[in-house]
Predict the structure of Flavin reductase family protein.
Amino acid sequence: MDDLPISKAFTLLEPGPVVLVTTHDRHRDNVMTISWTMVLDFSASFAITTGPWNYSFAALQRTKECVIAIPTVDMIDTVVGIGTCSGQDIDKFATFGLMREQAHRVRAPLIGQCLAHIECRVVDFIERYSIVVLEGVAAHMDAARQERRTIHAIGDGTFVVDGQRIDRREMMRSKLPDGV
């Protein structure tokens, strides 16, 4: 085996999918690309990594709500474009032709082009690691959307796309103890 610089070890475990996080700061909407997300348990608890370097972070701190929008591979250039500019300088919804749709439980908008959305409230900021802990309050999926493959960032400017879904639910159910 070849050695890998320890500074690149994260590329072996980089989670996915890449998401778009929308915010509303009481005046206007914004969207940022986030490539580090984490499911915290079997409920609707999630974490993202962001901080003051992202313009949307101030809105997250102020309103304590957002939407996690899940784009598909056909949106990769939009996703990368959103992540390489600041909402402080431009209206990303207008620049990237994003369709705003009203969320049900938060003021941040849904993005009409995305496959799915999770409306969230912020429950904690873990400053030491730049982690924002979110609690999902509503979820939506576009069942009519043809493209369903999501994008996963490797962390070095390259991406992996989901492929075939393999179903092993029955096999896993047979291995669980009674009552689980």
User: Anything to note?
Assistant: The helical segments are 10-13, 56-63, 76-83, 92-95, 169-173. The radius of gyration is 17 Å. Residues 56-63 form the longest helix (8 residues). The chain has one domain: 6-173.
